[in-house]
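Pair request: fold both.
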Amino acid sequence: ERRDTEMKIVSKASLMERVTVGRRGCWMWNGALSKEGYGVLRCGDGQRPAPRLFWESFVSVIPPGHRVLSRKVPGCVGKACCNPAHHRLQGPVVLKELEFCKLGHPLTGDNVVVENRNGREFKRCRICRREAWRDWQKQKSRQTPVSSSKSSTRK
């Protein structure tokens, strides 16, 4: 867990040396990018998201459980932008336990499968998962090319 005393890992000047200021006010990250396309900076024992570092350095401490998200400003370059004016702070997300899947199947007991995608766990309906797997198998079997036998005629 990060302490508040570690808020300013790098100086504002050092951060600004790592961006190019665009015509529409975007601060485009010139350093390394995460696999999702966001700017990242190696700090201490790992990597930190650049928008989060800029928010902490130019705006304020980010409370526990909060996230820095893009405001989707028109003309903004998106994920590579680090300008705090193009971002917003989102409060802690309270995940509501789902009782039913989208198709109305109960998400209880044996009908729940916990899946892990990119390090995030989520519950999935076993019935819907099974049906999606069958549909995928049918689609895959239709796509396999049939090898045609070519008759070779020699003169």
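--- second member of the pair ---
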Amino acid sequence: LVNLDLDTIVPMGKYKLTAINEGMVCYYDSVPSGNKARDSLVAKCGFLNTKGAIIIPARYDFAIYFTEGLCSVQENKKWGYINKAGKMIIKPEFDEAFPFKGGIASVNSGASYIDRTGKYIWKREDKHVFEIKPARCPGEKQPKPLIGLLFPDMN
């Protein structure tokens, strides 16, 4: 990781760096597996700031990137959301969890949508919802979430 002046922030090979967003850099590091029978290491991810300091230690199985102050992370095969301090804001209960856009996030393969508190705003029981995007209606200053629907062929 280098800054705009090409100064080295994180030396090559120290960590595997993935996504940089909202001033947070997702990194992977090898940490003890916790398996007392075998002294082994396992890759876990955490977050650095853009100066290379560890902000959130490597403890998650996977992470996406921060959007709107939250990041989806996986623990024990379930996804939840943390804030930039590493506090779990939405507990890991989803099979999949995608980044927030316009205050909402798709979870469980787009089957449902939640707000920033983890409350379901749309829980799809069928396959008719295909997309959700923030959109601005005439006369509104801020975009609002809109849900697109697919209707089955009635013929």
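Observation on the second member. DSSP finds no helices and 13 strands in the chain.
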